Amino acid sequence: MKVIFVQDVRGRGKRGQVKDVPDGYAQNYLIKRGLAKQATHAAMSQLAGQQRAEEKHAAEELAESKKLKKILEDDKTVVELSGKAGTDGRMFGSISTKQIATALQKQFNVKIDKRKIELAAPIKALGYVNVPIKLHPQVMAEIRVHIAEK
User: Fold this and answer.
1) 80, CA 20 to 30 Å: which among 28, 100, 102, 139?
2) SS3 sequence of 27-84
3) Whole-prediction pTM value?
4) How far is Cα 145 from Cα 127, in angstroms, rounded to an integer?
5) Dihedral angle, C-alpha 72, 75, 79, 85, nearest 10 °
6) CB 126 within 8 A of CB 59
7) What are the residues facing 3 on neighbouring strands?
8) What is the pLDDT of residues 74-133, one digit of tens each?
C-alpha cells in the first residue's frame, strides 16, 4: 500500500515522503497512529500543493536573508560598543553575542537572534572586529564591530 508520511518514522520514512509499505503495517500501525495517510489522488495533489508552498516560503526567506546581508555588510553599518579597558588595550570584561545583538537592534533597528552570531570567543580587546553572522544556511554576513574605551 502506498502511504504519505505525515511525521518522521524512524527506519521507514521522513515527513512528506511517499512509500510502499506492507498493507497490515500501514493500516494497523501508521494510519492508526496518525503517522501516515493513504496515498490517494486527492492526498497526492494536496502534498504537491504543500511542497510548492514550502518551496515558495524557503525562496522568500533566502531573498530576505540576502537583502539583510546587503544592509549588514554596508560600509556605514558599524556597531559601536564600549567597555572599560586597561592601559594595554585589553578589556576588563568582554563583549558577548547578546551585547552585539542588542546594539544592532538599538543602532540600526535590525533584529538578529544572538544564536545566529558566530563568535568563536567573547571579544576582549579594543578596536575593530569582523563578526560573522549566519542569516540562512546558504547566507553568511559579516558585520564590523568597533569597541571603544569608556
Assistant:
1) 139
2) HHHHHCCCCEEECCHHHHHHHHHHHHHHHHHHHHHHHHHHHHHHHHCCCCCEEEEEEC
3) 0.73
4) 8
5) 140
6) no
7) 19, 38
8) 888 899 999 898 888 889 889 999 999 999 999 999 999 999 999 988 999 999 999 999
